[in-house]
Each structure stands twice: as C-alpha cells, then as structure tokens.
Amino acid sequence: MAHILVVEDEPGIAMALEDDLALEGHRVALATDGIEASRLARSLPFDLILLDIMLPGKDGFDVCREIRRAGLTVPILMLTARVQETEKVLGLDLGADDYITKPYSHHELRARIRALLRRASVAPAQKHSFGDVEVDLVRAEARRAGRVVELTPLEFKLLAAFLQSPGRLLTRQLLLDAAWGKDVYVTERAVDNQVMNLRRKLEDDHTNPRFFSSVRGLGYRFDAGGVTDS
Ligand code: CA
Fold this sequence. Notes:
The protein is 41% helix and 21% strand. It contains 8 helices and 12 strands.
C-alpha cells in the first residue's frame, strides 16, 4: 500500500499508530523528534506524513514548513492535542493537508488517511522533463544534462507551478501565490526576477527563452516542447 512516515514522540501513541497502519497494509517509518522527521521527510519519498505537533528538537509546525519549503507535495496529516493547536493549523498557511485531534478514533484516522492518499494518487505527475532538463518534484531536484542544478526554494516552487500547468498562461499574481504564499506582501516585480533566474539556470539562452515565455503585460507561460517567439 503506502509508505507512511509517522512522527510521534510518545511511545504508546507511536506504537498504536504503527500497528494500526501496518494492519491496513502500509509500510511505516517512525521518527520520534522533529529534527529527524524533517531530515527523513526530505531524503526519502513518502506517500503520507502523520505529524505530531509537540515534539522534541523542532515542533511539527516547523517540520511542516521545512517540508513545503523544500518543494515537497507529500500529503501531511497533523496530529493535534489541543484546541489551540487546531486553530493554529487552520489559521496559519503551513501547508498541512488535514489535521486530526487527539485522542482520535482509529476509524476516523483511517478514513482521513484513505482520503488523503486518494487525493494524492490523482495528483499530477511528479517527474517532468523539457530540453535537457529533468525535474523530480518529489525529491525537489532539478538536473540539467544529468547534473544537479542548484535552485532556491522559491525558484523551485515557481518551477513546480509552471510544470503543473504547461501551456497555460500563469499570471504574476498566481505565480506569486504559488511560490510565496497568499498572505505575503511581495511585488510582482519579484516574480519577474525569479523567472529570470529560472531562465538563466534552465534555458540555453535566457535572453531568448524557449520554455519560459513572457505573455506581455499578463505573466508567463511554460511549454515543455519549447516555443520561440515569432
Ligand atoms: Ca508529542
């Protein structure tokens, strides 16, 4: 079934979760502190992450942010112990997909997990290529002619937004929301600068881009096949 990372520091709960998920046929990895969780989540491909909030080392909020900053789209189900935490999950743009309040019922947990896995399985492809560039969205890695291209988290998020909507006009505002988040104040000029960086790193000639073209006055469009401006 699925490969699930359980992040929980209370041994009793961790063991119950592991047993329950294994019974459902899932493969389970366990992290008992936030630092280990963040490292594991960013180095191995998981289908789902069950993330407790109160953790030693680094709390679940920070772990969730780090996973999203790395460009990973893995579904994250937060485990919250208190009402205040639930509000935080709802109120902050953390990038978690859902939350469940402890003590939870196994029935509810299973249902949430199934729903998240179903949603993820109809998600768009995670591997893309154009020209001599290959991008793996799960690993948050871009390669050009086989060599890793260093992209900042912002550049990677922008790239992911382009790859997920090939051939479509993406307005600066839409790109801004996708890369910076909705409640951040950034000028549209910042989008232009980041797209310029992507062109420099991924196009043969950034002054005459094939893949990331400008749509005058509106935004940008990505074409995997490459188009040249006429
Ligand atoms: Ca805990």
